[in-house]
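Q: May I have one protein plus its fold?
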Amino acid sequence: ALELIDFKNALEQFQNLVENMIIQKTKESSGLYTKDDDEIDYDKFYTTTRTLFGPAVKDQNIQAFFRKIMSNLDERPEWLEIFGCFKEESDGMSSPSKESMVFLVSEKQQITHSVVKRKDVIKGIVKVPLLHLTVTASQRGVLTVFSKQKFSYSFYFHQDTAWINGCDFLPNLNYVVAVTESTVILWDYKSKESQSDGFVIKPMKNCLLCVCTVTMADNLAKDTILMGDDKGYVYLLTITSDDFIMKQSKAEKESQFKVLDSEFFDIPKRKLHDDWVGKIKYFSALKRFGSCSTDSTNSFVLDYIKRLEDHLPVKEFSVPNGVNAFTYCGKAKVIVTGG
């Protein structure tokens, strides 16, 4: 607690230092500043920063932070950049002793493969550790699977107006699942066809905003997914390999994707929130799912998936202005939410 208080005090003094330096330089540029003993030059900035944070900051980061302020007084860098959180290249030295004492930043690898086009954004990214895969989904319909062997599989899901809102991986069926405003996409990324193969479940009545896979211990040829919509409902959908044979109707004209009518599926749903479901996730260690919303009353729900099929009370708590994100730490046995 004492270290936290000391760091907050040091951070406050550092932000005041930066503010005073910006005011001084702004006056200098307009010819209104008269030099005195309180002038903040690089030497004073360096000495003060070093006194406040000690060995937690490196010389090159102090210098880069100072240059960044001087080059553009209107665009102020974030304070955490003083700890070197935004490294662009590595010198090959990654020993713990050379890491920042405040933020430990692991080595990053940039994927140069162009996944999305201009004015497009990534809406979902999922790691599949057992298969060494990374799955991404862009808002405008580009689904991509990156493998450890440097191979990548991409598919563009053509749509008129619907945007992709999230994605996950189905480990038993070996499919990528993604949701749009009114459909569920099931993509067979291993398809050898000239055009990608898969299925589309539609129509979904409400706008789907998020999706996650329910990981089970069995290795049956089926997968269960959870979805949240813009009306506060959470859906439970189980898909088997038989569904691909028995429920399909026709292929979409622009791809090999076959349509599965949502009416043929048993999709239990329950209204858990009074606003959009922002995120949903299943925690296999807890055997429970979590869902969150900006709803101030039913902000976060944590319970068994069977609660979606009955009307028993669910475990929930309220946060003013709701919850936007959450995660579970197994080692500490805590759930952390961000609003």
Q: What stands out?
A: The chain has two domains: 1-83, 127-247+254-338. The radius of gyration is 25 Å. The longest strand covers residues 222-229.
